[in-house]
Amino acid sequence: MQIIVHGDLPEGVRDHGVFAAPADAAAEAHSRLLAARNKVAELRTAKATADRTLKCAVQKDDGRVDLNALSRTVHRLAKELAGAEEELEKAEAVRAAWAREHQRMRFAAIQGALREARQQFAEHYREAALALGHYYALGTEARELANSLADRLGNGGIYYSPDLKNVLAEASEDPNPLPALREAGYGELQTFQSWRRHCAIVPIVKEKS
């Protein structure tokens, strides 16, 4: 059975508009599929029961059961089951068509989102690298100032007051936020592009022209 989504809609699906309201049409196709499956299951059970009843009646053949009526019931159920199975096949094809259309539309949307995500990453990377560069520059300046403000002792040693030590300790801390993010419940994304999954954040500054 050929299903064409662009152009004529699949049989049994109202013309909601593929691009206007695809969710409604896809939901209808899914509901139709579930109904078709239930119908086939019910008829298969009914026919199996009728087959057993007819078989037992034929074997008994005591004249107390209308074999013709039972036979007509079996044939009727067989015909209804064949029709239901055909409807199920169509419903499955329609549902598959809408699933493929959804994938096509999602793929089209991803193309733009992919470029936007990369642009956002580039902007965030620039800001992060500049912030890291600013952090290291401040740390270097803090160390230089701390050395200037420290007291020189007569024995040649240098005494750093507690406030100087605190700032120096803070400037020496690792600014990498990844461990904290992992503790907060974030995990590393694994993709087929693992060989280039990491982008090092390096401290940068705007070079003077």
Topology:
Elements: H1 22-60, H2 67-149, E1 151-152, E2 158-159, H3 162-171, H4 178-183
Antiparallel strand pairs: 1-2
Radius of gyration: 37 Å
Total domains: 2
Averaged pLDDT: 84
CATH class of the largest domain: Mainly Alpha
Number of helices: 4
- H/E order of the elements? HHEEHH
Overview of this structure, please?
With 209 residues, this protein is mainly α. It folds into 2 domains: 93 residues, Helix Hairpins (Orthogonal Bundle); 82 residues. The protein has 4 helices and 2 strands; from the N terminus they run ααββαα. Strands 1-2 form a two-stranded antiparallel sheet. β1 and β2 form a beta hairpin. The protein starts with 21 loop residues before the first helix and ends in a 26-residue tail after the last helix.
In short, what is this structure?
This protein has 209 residues and is mainly α. It has helices spanning 22-60, 67-149, 162-171, 178-183, and strands spanning 151-152, 158-159. It has two domains: 22-114, Helix Hairpins (Orthogonal Bundle); 115-196.
